[in-house]
Amino acid sequence: MPHSLFISDLHLSADHSGSMAAFQRFIAEVAPQAEALYILGDLFEYWAGDDDLNDEFHARVITALRSLLRHGTRVCLLHGNRDLLMGQALAEACHATLLHDPTLIDLYGMPTLLSHGDILCTGDTEYQRYRAQVHDAAFQQQFLARPLAERKAYIEQLRSRSTTEKQGKDSVIMDVSDAAVAALLREYRYPRLIHGHTHLPDCHEHVVDGHRCERWVLGDWHQQGSALRCDKQGCVAILV
Ligand code: MN
């Protein structure tokens, strides 16, 4: 049956060969049967800019995604918080379409909103301040003007700090806020919602203004190896 696949939070990096192996297997064996593969953010552990396309590890990821072209599987890429600097050059190299966060699609007749999900974690005000800064176009332009090696070193430093900070944060604060979810569902006229980021795979039901909306949360790749498969009958979580 015609279907689409959704994955997120793969956090691919040269340091985690297991995740890369699972990704390559998924691309070779599972994804070719789908009409479309949607990657809802954090494909990469981090992306310092499209001038890092030729990095040997990145080239392997790109080659894998490009291979789906010959099977007719469309690839759509949405930015995560770690790879928000993915640009048009990377998308073209992968033969992928870059999507804005959020993007509303018609998924076999069901309006479906796609997001990475970090925008919904409004309880973490510190993170939202940081997010606003790094999504600012002028900030990004300035950052990308710095030498690649300097950008990578800066991101590495930021990552080690964020790991320490996360350990001290309440899990409720790190999850999405129900109010933010309701506001988003209302704004887009009560679609189904699919997002990642929290690494808490599940299907939730939200009743907003009397409308029942499904919210599917994708799991992370490394620990849970989960994907979502959707067709005209609905969505189902699958293990990859
Ligand atoms: Mn994320």
The percent range for strand residues is 15-25%
Shape type: globular
Helix content: 25-40%
CATH superfamily: Metallo-dependent phosphatases
Our count of domains comes out at 1
CATH class: Alpha Beta
CATH architecture classification: 4-Layer Sandwich
pLDDT averaged residue by residue: 95
The structure class reads alpha/beta
Number of strands: 11
Question: Which sheet architecture does the biggest sheet show?
Answer: 6 strands, mixed
Across the major sheet, the strand order is 4-3-2-1-10-11
Number of helices: 9
Question: SSE order, as H and E?
Answer: EHEHEHEEEHHHHHEEEHEE
Distance between the termini: 18 Å
What fold name stands as the CATH topology?
A: Purple Acid Phosphatase, chain A, domain 2
Present as ligands are: manganese (II) ion
Radius of gyration using CA atoms only: 17 Å
**Unreliable stretches:** none
Brief digest:
By secondary structure, this protein is α/β, with parallel strands linked by helices. It contains nine helices and eleven strands.
Provide a descriptive summary of the structure in words.
Strand 1, helix 1 and strand 2 form a beta-alpha-beta unit. The two termini are 18 Å apart. The protein has helices at residues 17-29, 56-66, 88-94, 125-134, 137-144, 148-167, 171-174, 178-187, 221-224, and strands at 4-7, 36-40, 74-78, 96-99, 103-107, 110-115, 192-195, 202-208, 211-217, 226-231, 234-239. The protein has a single domain (4-239), classed as Purple Acid Phosphatase, chain A, domain 2 (4-Layer Sandwich), CATH 3.60.21. The chain is globular, with a radius of gyration of 17 Å. 36% of the residues lie in helices and 25% in strands. The mean pLDDT is 95. It contains nine helices and eleven strands. The chain has a six-stranded mixed β-sheet with strand order 4-3-2-1-10-11. The chain has a five-stranded mixed β-sheet with strand order 5-6-7-9-8, covered by helices on one side. The chain is of the alpha/beta class and 240 residues long. The chain binds manganese (II) ion (MN).
